[in-house]
Every structure is written in structure tokens, then in C-alpha cells.
Amino acid sequence: MTENNTLQTERSYGLIRLMAMSIGATLASGVFSLSGDFAASGAHTLAVLIGWTIAGIGMFCLCMCFHRLSVIKPELTSGLYAYSRHGFGEFIGFNVAWGYWLGCILATISFATLLFAAIGYFMPVFGAGNNLISIICVSAIIWLFVALVLRGVNQAASLNVIIVSAKIMPILLLIFAIIFAGKFDMAIFMENFRGVEGGLPLMDQIKATTYTTVWVFVGIEAAVVVSGRAKTTVTAGRATALSFVCLLALYVLISVLSMGVLSTEELAALGNPPMAGVLEAVVGTWGAVLVNIAVIISLGGALFTYTLFTADCAYQPATQQCFPKLFTRLNKHNAPHVALIITNAIVQLFLIIVYFNESTYQICYTLSTSVIMMPYFLSALYCLKVTCKDPGLKAMSAGGRLGVWVIVIVGTIYGAWLLYASGLTYILISALLYGPGIFLFAYTRKEQGKKFFDTRVDAIACVVLALAFILSIVLIINGTLQPF
């Protein structure tokens, strides 16, 4: 989310190195659950194919919006928060920072539940990763990581090669095993191609794919930060585009091939991570063992990385007077100790909620995705706003200008589609998560001696959010809305 100061001077990365870092940053836990999550949401083959088409075009344009902003607005070094703040005012900018921070916290929770679901394959006592012993163990791990970071351990670079290899090896094994072992069955792939009688209509199935397709690309904005190390902006843009295309091809291959091995109903019934069940159907038990080991290594590394990264999502906005000054405090090891402790105290609170509500990995990442959608949309909207006033467009060729406009407009429309496809329920749940931020915003403004609102737009946005928050509370009390 933020750009380190060294990125402005160390411009030595070529195309291959940039692509490796970009793919490594984005390829996370979602890849192991793709097929099962699609099936569990009620999406059949045609809906998945259409969903990937929409996500492929839309997310590509969205990530290129991020790249365009990094080129034409290089002074905005805090990513999504800075874009929204400069584009739409202090209150909306604050909510983007707040929402992104919450999204990363919820992503941490989803990693934790899937981690112990994978461990549960070898040790059944951990079940689906959301029982009491799982919560106790993952809490101990997270606070151990906090203790390490507080002592100045800032990154897990030495584990990076192992973690990335652990992710890629079972994925490639699944793809090659299905192809070369002849396990892909066209009859299974075409079975209930459009859905089943009495099931979800096609459009609802397509909308149901949205959270999964967005979740597996969460982090694509990190490629923009990494691209600051590129030798040239052309190289950075090419690396961002090629990284995205490689990931999309990988995801589509996994989805399509899996739907030719097991039926939608069988995929939906698989435990976490679903890829283990698919690979077990192809090559036997040892395939499932390999996937679960890969998940454990991958998510263990992800939890360590997110321990610092998520705290940084509070620390960095605080350095720009978006969050309270308290979050900017550093200890003698130069670690943001207050942000770390507060962030992981909230993580702990959510883990307790997960236990009492028996929430699953899928519920946690759906909530994470729902609060991140608004920052994505507002960043694309800011890119559209900046492009409308960009004098540099006049110096481009007609084809170049057309390309820019297509990317920006489609990226903005896709951002709007994400909000539409999420549906009223998750919009209200997002309001429930965004609502408490109003109090933090008020405290921050008072601390700085500033008036509550700078503009009428800020005031209107706050009133709308407050009303949506109150409505969400009322619906929860009535039992109409179930956030977890």
C-alpha cells in the first residue's frame, strides 16, 4: 500500500525480476480454493467462464489504472488512500485507509482459518480451522510474530523462495497431471453447463463468482509499488500487464481443468483447501498431502508478512495525519509498536468472533473483499478524474489516447460492477464495518484541531454512511442480516 523511500533511487529491476515479485505478491491462498469456492457459491461452468471473462478484462484495466496513477501522480506515495484523499476529500480518503486496513485484517483471519484447516488434514483435532484449539494456536502464532517484529524483524525474505515454490509446485502438478493423465472428462465439464433446474439464474451465478475472482487478485496493487524499482516506467507497465496475464491464465486453467475432473456438486462438497481434493482425485492421496503442505508453508509465511504489513496500513496513514498520532510511534527497533499491538488486538477480537460464529475461510475472505471493493472503485474513479484533466494526453497518438480512455473507463465500470455484484447484503455489512471509523475520524480531526468536515461532500458521505450503519444494526437485531 505504501512506497518505501528507497524505491525512488533503486531503479534497477528488469522485466523478469519485476514479474517474479509481482506474481509472488499476488499469488496467495485463494489459488488453492478457486474451484471449490466457485461451486460452493452456486456457479456452474458457463457462469465461471463468463465470470473470468469479466474479471479478466475488468481487473486488467483496474490494475493498469493503478499503474497509470503511479506514473502521472508519483508524488502520491500511499497508494489507494492517497488517491481517494486527493480526489474526493479527507473523509472519503480516511474511509479508504480504514477500509483497506480492515480488509487486510480480515485477510489475515482468512489466512489463519485456512492454515489450520490444512493442518487439520494431518491432525483432525483442528477440524475446519475455526474450532477452539485452532483459535488458541493461531493466536499464539500471531502474537509470536508480533514479538519478532517488535524486535526489529521486518521481513521474511529468506523464506521467499521456499514459499513461492511451495505455492507453484502443486499448482503446476495439478495442471500437468490432469492434462497428461487424461483425467479431464468433457462430459463432466458440460454436465449442467448453465446450471440446474431450480438453481440460481445465470446472472446470479455470474455475480456469485465476483468475490472469488476479486479475492485471488487482491494484492495486484502491490505490483504498482514494486514497479517503482523498475529501470523505466515502460518496463514497469509491461511487467504489471504480463504478471496479470500469467496469473489470469493460471487461474482459468485451474478452474476449467478442475470442472472436468469433478462435478460442481462434488467440488462444492470438498473441504479446505479444495485443490487438495481435486489433486487427490487425479493422482491419489499423496497429491492431497502435497497441496496441504504447500498451503501450510505458504500461509505461515503470509501470516508473518501480514503481521507487519497490516500494521503498516495503519501506521502509514497516521504519518500523513489520517489516523491518530498514536499510530506513528516507533520503538527502539524502529518498529511501529502501537500500530502493531492495536492491529493484532483487533485481529484477536475477530478470531474470537470466528470461533463463536463458526465462521469459515470463505466467509472471512468475502468480508475482506467486500471492504476492499470501495477503495478499488474510488481509485479507478480518481484515475478517470485525473485523466479528464491530463494535458499529457494531447501529446499522445490517437491510438494511445484511445487506449488510455478504454482502460480508465472500463476500469471504473468494473469497479462499479464489483459494488453492484456484491449485492445489498454485503453493502450493508460493509457499512457495518466502515461505521465505527466515523468515531476514529472524529477523534483524529479533534486531535489535530481541525473542523470535522472540510467540504459538503464529506458531510453528505458521513450522513449516508451513518444511516447505512444504523440500518445494518437494526437488521442484525431483527435477524435479517447475518454478518458472520
Word description of this protein:
This protein has helices spanning 15-26, 34-40, 45-72, 80-88, 90-122, 132-150, 160-180, 186-190, 202-208, 210-215, 222-226, 233-258, 264-268, 274-283, 285-319, 337-357, 361-388, 398-434, 437-447, 456-477. It is mostly helical and 484 residues long. Helix 3 packs across helix 17 (361-388), helix 6 crosses helix 15 and helix 7 crosses helix 12. Mean pLDDT is 82; it is low at 1-10 and 154-158.
SSE layout:
Blueprint: H1 15-26, H2 34-40, H3 45-72, H4 80-88, H5 90-122, H6 132-150, H7 160-180, H8 186-190, H9 202-208, H10 210-215, H11 222-226, H12 233-258, H13 264-268, H14 274-283, H15 285-319, H16 337-357, H17 361-388, H18 398-434, H19 437-447, H20 456-477
Number of distinct helices: 20
Count of extended strands:
0
Shape: globular
Mean pLDDT: 82
Estimated radius of gyration = 22 Å
Q: Strand-residue fraction?
A: under 5%
Highlighted features:
single chain, 484 residues, mainly alpha, 0% strand, globular, disordered N terminus
Compact summary:
With 484 residues, the protein is mainly α. It has helices spanning 15-26, 34-40, 45-72, 80-88, 90-122, 132-150, 160-180, 186-190, 202-208, 210-215, 222-226, 233-258, 264-268, 274-283, 285-319, 337-357, 361-388, 398-434, 437-447, 456-477.
